[in-house]
Amino acid sequence: MLSQDIDGLEVIVSDNASTDRTPEILGDLASRDPRLKVFHQPINLGAARNYDFCFYKSASRYFKWQAHDDILAPGYLASTVDALDKDQGAVGVHTQTQLVDENARPLVYDADARGYVDDTGFVWKQGLDDLSGLSDEDPVSRFAAVLRNCHNSFEFFGVWRRESMLGSGLHLPFWGSDRVFLAEMSLRGRIRVLEPRLFQRRCHVEQASSLPVNEAVRWIDPEKRFMPFFSVQGAHFRACWRAISRSPVKESEKRRCRLALLRHAVRREKFRSILREGPLRHLGVGVPGYRDLAGR
Question: CA 275, 269, 123 angle in degrees (round to 5)?
């Protein structure tokens, strides 16, 4: 991050109650580079709250989240910020993604395996999203494109106009909320994905998406021990519905978005149990006994 060639860079690090040498390493770096601002959490906030903590500590015109194990190639920030400067209709800009292993070596796509294969032979079913609809002029088309195509949600780690993020759900405390964030931002403006592969997504066995389900739940929110699959899907549905309600688009476009969300739900087997579980209160925002995980 600190090697990116861009003026006015501020790097905010929230150390989420690390028990290793992370505080020592960060203290040494911060003493030598004033662009680095370090905060240490006394307890584990969970990934969701820790991500949002960084946002609220920022005051810049543009903002991006950065996972600790992903890599920005030279020129990433310069190209994305330049694109945002020139395109006022865009709320976020990312680049194409290159999958790399734990040693930053690029993974190669195997058509027969239908995924990217690492040195151990493991197939990573990632990086094949169709992103063409994210920059459509029609907000409903953009919203539907996120639901339909952004399974990996790499664009979550793009550069965003901070003012466009205000009032959104940000990173909500359930698995897959990064996709909800993209859906909400798609209603606030276009999302551009530049052609160069300057974002390197590291793939390794210890990353969050590789954790067992219960560990992944605790990674997002340490207060939880288990979250049934239908509750995750219900939280996703409910948060998307709320995102539509608070979006700045016309009422007619909100109705079209709600219809797109309902169609998406009934077409997916994962959601059908939710729809059968109980009536959709207020057109689909409730499940009996379901805790309000969508929060804000």
Answer: 145
CA–CA distance, 16 with 29 (Å, rounded to integer): 17
Is the distance from CB of 169 to CB of 195 less than 8 angstroms?
no
Q: Going along 66-205, which residue ranges are E strands?
A: 71-72, 90-100, 108-110, 115-117, 123-124, 159-161, 190-202
Write down the pTM of the prediction.
0.88
What are the backbone angles phi and psi of residue 63, rounded to the nearest 5°? -145, 145
Give the tens place of pLDDT for each residue, 69-99.
999 999 999 999 999 999 999 999 999 999 9
Cα 27 to chain centroid, rounded: 28
Strand extents, DSSP E, the chain: 11-15, 36-40, 62-63, 71-72, 90-100, 108-110, 115-117, 123-124, 159-161, 190-202
Residue 152: partners with Cβ closer than 8 Å, 6 or more residues away: 97, 126, 127, 128, 129
User: What strands lie across the sheet with 108-110, from one edge to the other?
Assistant: 108-110, 115-117, 123-124
| Spatial separation of the C-alpha atoms in residues 33 and 20, rounded to whole Å | 22
Q: What is the mean pLDDT of residues 29-42?
A: 97
Output the six-digit token pair for 155.
């664009």
Integer Cα distance of 83 and 130 in angstroms: 20
Report residue 25: phi and psi, to 5°.
-65, -45
